[in-house]
Amino acid sequence: MSMTDITTANGTAPIPGPATPYQGDIARYWDHEARPVNLRLGDVDGLYHHHYGIGDVDHASLGDPTDSEREKKVITELHRLESAQADVLLDNLGAITPDATLVDAGCGRGGSMVMAHQRFGCKVEGVTLSAKQAEFGNRRARELGIEDSVRSRVCNMLDMPFATGSVAGSWNNESSMYVDLHDLFAEHSRILSVGGRYVTITGCWNPIYGQPSKWVSQINAHFECNIHSRREYLRAMADNRLVPQAVIDLTPATLPYWELRATSSLVTGIEEAFISSYKDGSFQYLLIAADRV
Ligand SMILES: C[S@@+](CC[C@H](N)C(=O)[O-])C[C@H]1O[C@@H](n2cnc3c(N)ncnc32)[C@H](O)[C@@H]1O
Ligand SMILES: CC(C)=CCC/C(C)=C/COP(=O)(O)OP(=O)(O)O
Ligand SMILES: [Mg+2]
């Protein structure tokens, strides 16, 4: 236990304090996050995501621009695209049996975990720095009656409470830009069984551009994160026994989501940075699926 460990109200189980002051900032950030773009989309069907969408917009579903229900339809469509993103991540985990355990590193409010359990019938463990997010995810799991299989906890993804080689699949869905990639992949490599699968969907800067563009810097400042380059992902995986089986550039697939979002009432002000950096080639939306060898 570190000097910063905090004891829970009943005085028993210790909740580890943040490993660094930065992680304390990130925990506070997500404890206080309540953007309508995330809550209203989650309210559509009870799957709460903190990631972006992919796939073509179904313009027919949006109706006429003057339709009084249009805003509601846009929200439903944005949410459909975010769930489609999580589905593609899960597709890349391969065959997962019901007796397996999966780990969602940086699980947010737990939408992807619920989807993983519904698809594979297996146990899904999530870690987040935010106590509010973990409570939210566990409350949703109870409401769905799946709390024995889907559990979120407050924990640093660089030091997870899972035994070496105990996990069949693990992922980071837009959560790897908060940590050092060598430390992150060393920890995934430790918990995964040999032959296990790791998947990430992430935004990364493109080495071809030269350095992080002003748009990438703006996204970093907006979310208090540190976007890595594509090269850094591939090097850090190679150094940690994670061998890429698929590297998919999802940039063209995510642009329709951003262009639709930019027209909605739920804009947050970061839309221009994503659209501009995807278009000028300085930033890419990438899926990497790797085998633990
Ligand atoms: C953008 S959200 C993504 C949430 C989720 N993966 C999703 O797709 O909805 C980033 C998440 O990373 C988590 N995170 C950041 N740094 C972390 C760390 N060192 N350990 C655990 N979680 C971390 C945050 O608490 C937050 O839940
Ligand atoms: C692809 C990159 C660089 C992602 C950064 C991490 C991040 C904050 C993702 C979305 O979270 P969110 O769903 O809470 O954000 P928003 O409120 O913008 O929808
Ligand atoms: Mg969002």
TrEMBL record:
Biological process (GO), any one: methylation
EC class of the enzyme, as a word: transferase
Bias-annotated ranges (Polar residues): 1-11
Membrane-spanning parts: none
Keywords carried by this UniProt record: Methyltransferase, Transferase
Domain of life assignment: Bacteria
InterPro entries noted in UniProt: Erg6_SMT_methyltransf, GPPMT_Stmyces, SAM-dependent_MTases_sf
Molecular-function GO terms, alphabetical: methyltransferase activity
EC number: 2.1.1.255
Annotated stretches, region: Disordered: 1-21
Pfam families the record matches: CMAS
Classification via PANTHER family: GERANYL DIPHOSPHATE 2-C-METHYLTRANSFERASE, ZGC:194242
Entry protein name: Geranyl diphosphate 2-C-methyltransferase
Species in which this protein is naturally found: Kitasatospora aburaviensis
